[in-house]
Amino acid sequence: MATAAPTTCVNHRRRPRAATCGACGNGVCADCVVRTGVGIKCPNCTGVKAARPAKAARVDAGAAPAAPKAASSGTGRKRWALPVALGGVVVLAVAAFGLASRDSGPTVTEEVGVAGPAAGAPTERQSEFVGAGGVRIAGTLTLPPLEEGRAAPAVLLVPGLGALDRNGPVAADPPDALRDALVTTVTGLEVATPNPLFRDLSESLAREGIASFRYDKRGTKPSPLRDGQKLSFDDEVADARAALDLLSKRAELGGGPIVLLGQDTGAVVAMRLAAGNARVKGVVAVSTPARPMGEVFAVDLARSRGPAVADAFRAATATLAATGTAPPADTLPEVIRPIFGAGQDAYLKALFALDATADVGRVAVPVLQVRGGADPAVTAADTDRLSASVRQSGQVMVGSSQADRNLTLPSGGHEHSSSAAAPTIPRDTDVRAALTSWVKVQLAS
Fold first, then answer.
1. In whole angstroms, what is the distance from residue 156 CA to residue 269 CA?
2. CB 236 within 8 A of CB 242
3. How far apart are CA 255 and CA 279, in angstroms?
4. Distance CA 280, CA 154 (A)
5. Sorting pLDDT into bands at 50, 70 and 90, what band is 419?
6. Fewer CB atoms near the end CB (10 Å): N or C, the chain?
7. Is the torsion defined by CA of 273, 372, 223, 184 positive or negative?
8. Distance (Å, rounded) from C-alpha 232 to C-alpha 67?
9. CA–CA gap between residue 184 and residue 220 (Å, rounded)
10. Where are the beta strands (DSSP E) in 131-289?
11. How many angstroms separate the Cα of 3 from the Cα of each of 6, 22, 23, 207?
C-alpha cells in the first residue's frame, strides 16, 4: 500500500514540509532544505547541520548582559551608520577584487554543497572552480569511505566531445553519433541523449577506494560561455589544469597521485596536462582515435551518410584550414550545416587538426587505451597506431564486441549504475572493472 508523503519536517515536527528529501523521502522545512547537484536532500543525508527555527532571545545565568540597542547621537545620525558604511566599502572592494581575479586566469573557488548517502557508501561533494576566461565550472568530487586522517588517490575525468554535463558524453546512437557529439560541442544544443559514463566510472573507482572528480564542459548548458566568448581547445586544457589545481587543495586527497582519464578529445587534453606533471601517474584514453579528428569525422560520415556528404565535409574542412573561415552553412549538405554554422571557426580548425599520436609521445607515464569492440570510429588500427607512439608503456583494453564508444551495451544482462540521478545504462562491466584495476595499480606505483 502506498505511504502518504510526510506533512511535517523530520527535524522540526511543528513546521510544515516545504520539500521532500530525494534520498530518504523524509519531509524538510524551508530551513532544512539542502540543495545539491542531484536534487534536494535533507541534513541527515548530507551531513549538514539542521537549522534551528527562530526563537526568542535567551540569556543564560551568569552571562554578561546584552549590549543596549544603538541609539541616535546628538547629531541625529545613528551610531552604527559609519561602521555599516565602512563595511559596505569593504564588501564592495572584496567583490571587485573577486571579479577582477575571475578574469586573470583559472582559479579555484569554495565548495558549494555536499551530498552524502548512508555511512560506508561513497560521498559526493559539489565544488566549483573558475576556468579560462572567467567561465565558472561546476563539478562533483566522489570520495570513497575514508578513515579519519586518511587520504585517497584520485582520478580526474576530462570531458571530450559532446559532453552534456559532468556525468558523461552523449549516447552513441547511430547513424550520427559522432556528428551529434560535434554539434552538441559547438552549439551547446542538446541534440542527443546523455550517457553517464563518467558517473558510472566514478562509482566503480569509489568501490576500490579511489576518489574522482568530474566537471561540466565549457560551452554546455551547465557552464555557458560569457557574452562574446568562443570555444578554444587551449581553454579546455586550461580548464582541466584548473580542475587539477582544485584537487591539489583538497584535504581528502592529501596531495597524492593522480590518474587522468579522458574520452576522444578529452584524452588529448589529458595527455597535454600529463606532460611534465610529476603528480600524474597514468593516462587513460577512452575511444581515442589515432588520426586527425577531421578525417575521423569524414570517414564516419561516409559510412553513415555516403561519400557525397563525406566529400563535402572534407572540402569544408580544407577551406577552413586554408582560410580560417568555413564556407557558408547554406552551401553544405543539411546534415553537416549545424557543425559549421555556429561561428566557431577557430575552434573547429584546431579541433579537426588534433591527432593524439602527436601528443601521446610527450607523455612520460603509462597510457591505457580503452575502446568498445563495436565502435566503428575507433578501430584496432587506431589503437595499434597510437601504441606505436606511446613513449613509456602502454596497454590496450577492448570491450565486448557489442560495446560502443561509451562502453554501452545494446541490451541488459550486465551490471549498471543504480543511481536515480541519471538513466540506467547497460554498461560493459568487464572492461570497466579491468580499467579500474589498471588505475589502482598506477596510483599505487
1. 11
2. no
3. 8
4. 10
5. very low
6. N
7. positive
8. 57
9. 8
10. 136-143, 154-158, 211-215, 258-263, 280-286
11. 9, 15, 16, 33
User: Which of 48-69 are b and which e, b meaning 16 or more Cβ less than 10 Å from the residue's Cβ?
Assistant: bebbeeeeeeeeeeeeeeeeee
Give the per-residue pLDDT at 202. 95
Bridge partners (DSSP) of residue 147 are: none
pTM, rounded to two decimals: 0.75
Closest to 354 in 3D by CA, of 282, 296, 273, 284: 296
Domains delineated in the chain: 1-50 (no CATH), 107-291+355-444 (3.40.50.1820)
Tell whether the model's pLDDT for residue 370 goes beyond 50.
Answer: yes
User: Would you call 321 exposed, middle or buried from its count of C-beta atoms within 10 A (0-12, 13-18, 19+)?
Assistant: middle
Angle at the Cα of 286 from the Cα atoms of 344 and 234, rounded to 5 degrees: 35
Please answer whether residues 164 and 189 qualify as being in contact, where contact means their C-beta atoms are separated by less than 8 angstroms: no
Spatial contact of 236 and 137, defined as CB atoms under 8 Å apart: no
Give residue for cell 566557431: 344
Q: Report d(CA 163, CA 190) in Å as an integer.
A: 10
Q: Is 414 helix (H, G, I), strand (E, B) or coil?
A: coil
Residue 190 CA from chain centroid, whole number: 16
Residues 6+ apart with CB under 8 A from 168: 194, 195, 196, 197, 198, 199, 200, 406
